[in-house]
Structures are given as structure tokens and as C-alpha cells.
Automatic annotation (TrEMBL):
<feature type="transmembrane region" description="Helical">
    <location>
        <begin position="41"/>
        <end position="63"/>
    </location>
</feature>
<feature type="transmembrane region" description="Helical">
    <location>
        <begin position="9"/>
        <end position="29"/>
    </location>
</feature>
<keyword id="KW-0472">Membrane</keyword>
<dbReference type="GO" id="GO:0016020">
    <property type="term" value="C:membrane"/>
</dbReference>
<dbReference type="GO" id="GO:0000155">
    <property type="term" value="F:phosphorelay sensor kinase activity"/>
</dbReference>
<feature type="transmembrane region" description="Helical">
    <location>
        <begin position="116"/>
        <end position="136"/>
    </location>
</feature>
<keyword id="KW-0812">Transmembrane</keyword>
<feature type="domain" description="Signal transduction histidine kinase internal region">
    <location>
        <begin position="156"/>
        <end position="231"/>
    </location>
</feature>
<dbReference type="InterPro" id="IPR036890">
    <property type="entry name" value="HATPase_C_sf"/>
</dbReference>
<protein>
    <submittedName>
        <fullName>Histidine kinase</fullName>
    </submittedName>
</protein>
<keyword id="KW-1133">Transmembrane helix</keyword>
<keyword id="KW-0418">Kinase</keyword>
<dbReference type="InterPro" id="IPR010559">
    <property type="entry name" value="Sig_transdc_His_kin_internal"/>
</dbReference>
<dbReference type="InterPro" id="IPR050640">
    <property type="entry name" value="Bact_2-comp_sensor_kinase"/>
</dbReference>
<feature type="transmembrane region" description="Helical">
    <location>
        <begin position="75"/>
        <end position="96"/>
    </location>
</feature>
<keyword id="KW-0808">Transferase</keyword>
<dbReference type="Pfam" id="PF06580">
    <property type="entry name" value="His_kinase"/>
</dbReference>
């Protein structure tokens, strides 16, 4: 930002310096004309440049921002007043010219051209350029503002989506604890410890945009441990992690919905559950796979639909065009989720 400001500053200095020195370039090619150099002409040229530069920046950074969009008449009036002042300035320059320029202009009948047409063209070019720079800067500022608004909206939306997932997860965990207490299970104390770790993670670890994957995996282990304790029939529940992905940075609570659903629809009271979770490193990111035998078909899937919609929305916001989510029901009655993420970091 600072670098861009200085580049613009230097560019303006160079342009105005060129305009200031332009009348004197001929002396480089015709040094004999230096003897005809007139201080009054140089001084009046400097006054013209200072006046145009002053009006240029007043229009660009004060008049246009204040009046261009809401008070067009005031904006036009300010330009008009500046033009009449410029005409008056040129008349004073001509009138006090010691070489009798005024009499010469009247005699040649070109006073109107010298005082109106010439200054009008120069002043108009200056004001048009100033207005174009203002509009360009305003467009860039508006684009930056829209980008900031979109970022804030995305951040707020992600927070809402994350909060929608966490209470559902906590509700299921509390149901598990109630079930263990009713059963008077000796694992109740360990379950409360697991719950405290889950709450600590949700309250203190997921306030940032990303966490280390190994923390998310530990959170999943706690959840899986709680769910495994209440399995009515012993089964196979596996969590496999490629060591290469443990230090990856990922958005928190991104996978827990799929873990919840694997237990929700992969466990019943008659069959042995078969549930597998897997994290693998890919060429440009990570891959998560959830696979479970579909054992429960009768429950309403309204909450699942809401949860899946939330996950899809988060993926769209966090990994636009950089994720691939596949939901597959196999012929042998398994449900598979395969989520591939293209990561920013290596």
C-alpha cells in the first residue's frame, strides 16, 4: 500500500516537472535563443502550472469526493468558477506583460483565443484528467471495500455455520453420557473427562480460522471413544492417519459431521458395525475418507441434510474450486464419503 502510494507520488512529480520544463526544452536544441529568455514569461508559466496543479488536486481529492456523486451541479459550478479564475489570471498576466502583449493581441484580433480558447482547452484537459484519476481511485477503493465486506460476510457466515455444528455435536455427546450413567457404567468418569476435552477444544481451540490437523484428529478420537463405549454389539471402528498430514492446517470441525453420521447410520442393536475413517496425504493436499455399513434406514435424515448443507457451504467458502466431495452408496450396502482438499501450504 505504501509502495503504491510512493509510486503514484513520484509519477505525479515527474509529470508536473515535465510540464513545468516543457517551454524551455527548445533551449537545448537552440542555445542561441537563451539570450531571448524572459523572466516574466518564465514566472507567469510557473504561476500557470501552480494554479493548474492546485485546481487538479483540489478537484481530485476534495471537490470530486464531496460533490461528484450527490451534488453534480455544485461539482460543475466549482469547475466553472475555477475556469473563470483561470481566465482572470491569464488576463492579469497579459495586462501586466511589459512587452505590451495586450495591445498586440487586440491588434491581431486574437485576444479571445488567448484568454478563452487556449486556457479553456488547457483547463479542460487538466480537469478531465483529474476527474478520471478520481473515478479510477474511487473504483479501486470501492472494489477494495466490496472485497472487505465480502470477507467480513464470509467470516460471519463461517462462524454461524461452525456454531450450527457444535451444539448438535454436544447434544449427541450429552445423550451418550446420560446413557452411560443410566447403565451405571464404570466408564462414566472417563466419559466425563472426554467430554471436558471436547468442550475445551470447542471453546478454546476453534476460535481461529484454522487449527493443526492433529488437534482435530484428537477431537475426533474423543468423539469416537464416546460413541464406541455405547456400541450395543462389538464391531470394527478404525481411524487411520497418514503421519505426513498431521501438521496440516485445516478449518476446525470440518469432518465431525461425517463422523457423527457414520455412527448415526452405521450402528444398530442387531448387527456388528463396520466403520472406518482415514486421512491420507495427496499430491496437493489431503484426503479424508469415511466408510460405514448402513445399518439404520428408518430415522429421519432432516438433520443430516442440514448438516451436509452446512459442510458444503463451508467448503464452498473456504476452498472454492479447491475441494472435491463425493458421497457414494455401494452395492454391498456401504456408505462412503471422500473429501479431497487442495491445501495452500506445502
Amino acid at each position: 500500500m505504501i509502495s503504491r502510494f510512493f509510486k503514484k507520488f513520484y509519477l505525479h512529480v515527474v509529470i508536473w516537472t515535465i510540464l513545468l520544463l516543457l517551454p524551455f526544452i527548445t533551449y537545448l536544441y537552440q542555445p542561441d535563443k537563451i539570450a531571448d529568455f524572459k523572466i516574466y514569461a518564465a514566472a507567469t508559466h510557473l504561476v500557470n502550472i501552480l494554479f493548474l496543479a492546485t485546481n487538479f488536486y483540489l478537484l481530485c481529492y476534495f471537490v470530486a469526493p464531496k460533490f461528484f456523486f450527490g451534488h453534480r451541479k455544485t461539482f460543475a459550478a466549482a469547475i466553472g468558477i475555477g475556469f473563470f479564475i483561470y481566465v482572470g489570471l491569464n488576463y492579469i498576466i497579459v495586462y501586466f506583460n511589459p512587452d505590451g502583449e495586450l495591445a498586440h493581441l487586440v491588434r491581431e484580433n486574437i485576444l479571445f483565443v488567448r484568454l478563452i480558447i487556449g486556457p479553456g482547452i488547457i483547463y479542460s484537459l487538466c480537469m478531465i484528467t483529474s476527474s478520471m484519476i478520481f473515478l479510477y481511485d474511487e473504483q479501486a477503493r470501492q472494489k477494495e471495500l466490496n472485497k472487505q465486506i465480502a470477507l467480513e460476510k464470509t467470516t460471519a457466515e463461517l462462524t454461524i455455520l461452525k456454531l450450527q455444528i457444535s451444539p448438535h455435536f454436544l447434544f449427541n455427546t450429552l445423550n451418550n453420557i446420560r446413557w452411560l450413567i443410566r447403565k451405571k457404567s464404570p466408564d462414566s468418569e472417563n466419559t466425563i473427562i472426554k467430554l471436558s476435552e471436547i468442550l475445551r477444544y470447542i471453546l478454546y481451540e476453534v476460535d481461529g480460522p484454522k487449527v493443526e490437523l492433529f488437534k482435530e484428529i484428537e477431537h475426533m478420537r474423543n468423539f469416537i471413544a464416546l460413541q464406541t463405549l455405547r456400541l450395543p454389539i462389538e464391531g470394527n471402528v478404525e481411524l487411520t492417519i497418514d503421519d505426513a498430514v498431521k501438521n496440516r492446517m485445516i478449518p476446525p470441525l470440518l469432518f465431525i459431521h461425517f463422523v457423527e453420521n457414520a455412527f448415526k447410520y452405521g450402528v444398530d442393536s442387531k448387527n456388528s458395525p463396520q466403520i472406518q475413517f482415514q486421512f491420507l496425504e495427496t499430491a496437493n493436499g489431503i484426503s479424508f475418507k469415511s466408510r460405514n455399513k448402513i445399518l439404520r434406514h428408518t430415522e429421519s435424515r432432516t438433520n443430516e441434510g442440514i448438516g451436509l448443507t452446512n459442510v458444503r457451504r463451508r467448503l464452498h467458502l473456504l476452498y472454492p474450486h479447491r475441494h472435491d466431495l463425493s458421497l457414494i452408496t455401494t452395492e454391498d450396502g456401504y456408505f462412503e464419503v471422500i473429501l479431497k482438499l487442495v491445501m495452500d501450504e506445502n
